[in-house]
What does this fold into?
Amino acid sequence: MANPEYFTIVDTLKPDLIMYDFLHPCIPTMVATLLIPAVLFLTHGAASNSYHHHGRINNPSFEYPFPKIFFHDHEHRKNKKIFDSLENEGIDNKNGVTRCFKRSKEIILIKSWKQISEVLPEGYFERIENRGIIIENWASHGRILEHSSIGGFVSHCGWGSVIEALNYGVPIIAMPMQHDQPRNGRLLVNEVGVGLEIHRDEEGKFDKEVAKIVREVVLEKSGERLREKAKEFSEIMRENGENDIHGLVEELLKLCRETIIITLDKSTKKCLV
It folds into this structure.
């Protein structure tokens, strides 16, 4: 995306705003020459990004303050192998992600819900005041998850899948693989209480408890609290979702309006949100 063709496309379309992901730290710098604001949209969850910044960027010598969200040794080894492979290919993943954060124009977008605030450090909202804002041929996940026959979702715990499951009130059987997925799984199981995790051995292999965990979540009385909690989160997300999206749109439109004021030629501007 750093090639001249991308710059030409943006210069031709002249959008009021661009959203980019954590793989493209060059975009905000590139479009700044065109006086176009760029906003980072994080596809990973807030807890996962918090863990990443604490351990790899901000405080690598201190333990993460939320011990229920962690990596097993085999998950550390797997992720380290992935990062080492990227670095061997000349991809500076750590510093690239950092640049993506720092270059975002005033706000950073994360798909979440307000009740994540229950696990944030005391005084967090006061510390980010005036610096940040918290607001939240294929098979359709949505159509499947909303079906009345669905009692649970066996998931790798990618953040998009997590949000979809909770939106429809479906408890999660967590089978995280790599990247942010283990941290998302720990958040759901240990902090939020909307699922159970299928554990692996020290080599990262699944044991024989898969069927047991699925049955517990979907059918047994012991899983009833999980199912109730998932439904509670569904109601919370649906109630807050409309207000949150209105707040998000207003913040993005404010960035667009600020840019238009300092742009000489406004007649061809279009807002691509």
Observations:
- The first strand starts at residue 18 and ends at 20.
- Residues 264-273 have pLDDT under 50 and may be disordered.
- The first helix runs from residue 4 to 13.
